[in-house]
Amino acid sequence: MGVKKPSESPPLFPRHNILGVAISAINMQDALTTIRGWVEREEPNYVCVTPAHAVMECVKDGGLRPVYNQAGLVTPDGMAIVWLLKLAGFSRVNRVYGPDLLRAVCAESLSRGWRHYFFGGAPQVTERLVARLRGGFPGLQVAGWDCPAFEGFDAAQEAAAIERIRESKADIVWVALGSPRQERWMAENYRRCGGVLVGVGAAFDFLSGNKPQAPRWMQRAGLEWLFRLASEPRRLWRRYLQYPRFVWLVFLQRLGLRKFPV
């Protein structure tokens, strides 16, 4: 693993209840500070990168909510989440977007010797991602990568995959299995893997160049969903059909007309 340095415990950032999901009121630097503390103390943990549709998945599936709420960080990935946190008085909050977090941690790791493992994605996508990251961050330490075929992935195969992660001595494990599968997998296995697991979903596709990212102005305006829907309508239309209900439920929660316990 990377070089360990004496570290104080990272600060415990406040969380805010959005429809029963306790979102960490943080910005990118806060996320880096927290992850750095875990790595330096060799403390296993996991991070859920959380847009509005992930919150709605937790509303639909009560069993998923503890998976998020027990994570070390539940980052505000979507602008709707960021705006709600700011409305609640957390003025320092900014978006902690999966692809940006991956790149920021890679940059941070260069001087610290952290080792990265990439778990998930299609083989050609993950290989291209690793090549691009090595090109963009010379000296990046890649401990390995694995692209499991989760259809028919039995307990023995899963145990072997986890053992490969452990043997790699990775400090950071980037998990891209799709939501909510990746969140459930991290919650079940982060202690067995031994590092810091970060679920980043489509970040492998975006940073490898396999899929286009929304322009920054659309991201800042909260319109990334529209760009992605236009790019992949058949796959994503059901996801974004939930957004009007998200707005309505948040309205009810803020008025105190409906309770969403954490």
Write the layout of secondary structure elements.
Blueprint: E1 15-18, E2 21-24, H1 28-40, E3 45-50, H2 52-60, H3 65-69, E4 73-76, H4 79-87, H5 98-109, E5 115-120, H6 123-136, E6 141-146, H7 155-168, E7 172-176, H8 181-193, E8 196-199, H9 203-208, H10 216-220, H11 224-231, H12 233-240, H13 243-255
Parallel strand pairs: 3-4, 3-8, 5-6, 5-7, 7-8
Antiparallel strand pairs: 1-2
Helix pairs in contact: 1-5, 11-12
Features:
262 residues, globular, 13 helices, two-stranded antiparallel ribbon, WecG_TagA_CpsF, disordered N terminus, hexosyltransferase activity
Please tell me about this protein's structure:
The protein has 262 residues and is α/β, with parallel strands linked by helices. The chain is 49% helix and 15% strand. The protein has one domain (15-254). The strands form two sheets. The protein has a six-stranded parallel beta sheet, with helices on both faces. It has a two-stranded antiparallel sheet with strand order 1-2. Helix 8 links the parallel strand 7 and strand 8 (196-199). Helix 1 (28-40) packs across helix 5 (98-109). It is globular and about 50 Å long. The model is unreliable at 3-8 (pLDDT under 50).
